[in-house]
Amino acid sequence: MKMSLIISLLFVFSSAITAVIKPDTIIVYKTVDDVDLSLHVFFPDGHTSHDSKPAIVFFHGGGFKSGSPEHFYGQCQYLASRGMVAISAQYRTEKANGTSPIECIKDGKSAIRWVYSHATVFGIDKGQIVAGGGSAGGHIAASTAVLSGFNEADEDTSVSCVPKALVLFNPVLNNGPDGYGYERVGDFYKQFSPHHNLHINTPPTLIMVGTEDKLFTPPMAKAYKKKMENMGLRCDLIFYQGYGHAFFNKGQSEEMYYQTMIDVDRFLISLGYLAGEPSTLQSFREVHFKKKDNPFVKHIYSADPSAHVFNDKMYVYTSHDEDTASYFNMIDWHVFSTENMVDWTDHGAVFSLDDINWADKWAWAPDCVERDGKYYFYYPVERAKIGVAVSDSPIGPFKDVLGKPLIDNTGQVEHIGKEPIDPSVLIEKGQAYMYFGCREPKVVKLKKNMMALKGDVQELKIKGIEGDNEHFGGFYGEAPWVFKRKDTYYLLYSNGWGKTSTLVYATSKKPMGPFNFQGEVMDVVSSWTSHGSIVQFKDKWYVFYHNMDLSNNNYRRSICFDELTFDENGRINKLKL
């Protein structure tokens, strides 16, 4: 059990998605002007007062005007899971208390002093106390370490308020004439601005900034780092390409919300405060949500859904469009799961380009199949290669045990095709078939180990599309997907790219064809790419696909699904959107 304290927890924070995060206790650290200010504390599992663990105190952003401790609940929960006592501090703000930034800094110093004073009682190592914060909260955290004065009247200043390290998310550290907020503080910046008060006892500092930040700009961050290093001090500076101020907030970028915490973890490991390795992006970023409408995944951009049922549970494997994408520069793949088509879990990035030593770009449409208790994840990269990774679980982590491409058209374009992308795999009567190809539909058998080809790559013939032009009729564009219903094999694919292209299908009595074109599966969607899958789950059939309704950008797509029906002759009833 976690350590219990006198103050009982009354507050429950519910995030915008459905996860609920609670502190273990809320403790009053200061009462001023009849206002109780609290620390929201998260303890590691099994923590007791006899422990001696590192601690971190976070200060939320809000321009000294607003905000609340809940802002850093997610970060606290993560660091507690890694063995820290993690605390999010309440302080007075202009909106809630009619106070100025001076009171904010006073409260910050009081909070750090309280932690030092109660370190033994709460199992905290006084030599490993960190202050952290975002934006104005980053300013407060830095101020506890570098600003003199700003102490609460009658407070015991013999107790230190200086943390042993600083973790700062887009902090506003320069308030001078060339910085931010000078018009608000004027010449008072000489006492108020952390940049202008750095000294040789400033603790090791991590600063995380988006390259598009207009408040604490990259040049300001570089100047701060240079000034520290000129004093012989450590300042780690990480830039996050394309992101602006508040980039680390969950509502701004799901990816950066997690990535920044992994970077914080690495910084703390380097100081000796944490041990082992940071949690993977996958394990840290599991997200739970409900399907209300389409697109049903809204917290990240996702595309190219490949849906399968394993052990009575639906899994959907997708590519992942970046939040700022201007091309298909995807770097990882996600998997989503559900037991009822309403309650969903994003299991995070189950595989990425970082896991492949022979590919550098374009993590495009994947597929995954199960065989003999192993899960085989097929993925196209660089528009020229298809790889396979393996896991004991449908949610990974997957490993590139082959260490080389399964399919590579280098030097054999005539045999493999110009663009071997969009692999999908069907296992029928013990034989595995892999379908792939852009503009040139291909099929090849796989050996039982699922990681070697069995015979030559063959053309996948589709009859009834002769003369059809791109974007119309049965023209084969990309995204082959084969499934079996009764005694018929259905080939789903895209007939091109653009405002008139959509998902179409053909049928056959054999898994390698030839297939006969039948017609459209659904209306045209908003994105000019179409890619989908069809699967049966609990006696119903579903078609998964993507559109760009959330972003209005063809490179930032979102996955959807709808129920699909068939007529008495086995033809698909066209889905009206």
Automatic annotation (TrEMBL):
InterPro entries named among the record's database cross-references: AB_hydrolase_fold, BD-FAE-like_dom, Dienelactn_hydro, Glyco_hydro_43, Glyco_hydro_beta-prop_sf, Glycosyl_Hydrlase_43_Enz
Residue ranges of coiled coil: none
Domain Dienelactone hydrolase: 194-253
Entry keyword set: Carbohydrate metabolism, Glycosidase, Hydrolase, Polysaccharide degradation, Signal, Xylan degradation
Keyword Signal: yes
Signal peptide: 1-19
Domain BD-FAE-like: 49-156
Name this protein carries in UniProt: Family 43 glycosylhydrolase
Organism: Carboxylicivirga mesophila
